[in-house]
Amino acid sequence: MGILWFILIFASLTSHGKNAHGPDRCNHEGGLCRVGNCVSGEYLARYCFEPIILCCKSLSPTTAKS
Question: 33, 18 in Cβ contact below 8 A?
Fold first, then answer.
């Protein structure tokens, strides 16, 4: 019975949801994973882990320094 609980917990942690892609993809696309809410000046781009950990991106595009 204990192994069944382990499998269920593992399955629920590995399935992020249809809109979640994990922190690697969020960071690669210029976002930051945040818990709860995005800070001022950011918007919700997607989920790192749905529905608690958000992938937030800056509203203004960053410019690269030469």
Answer: no
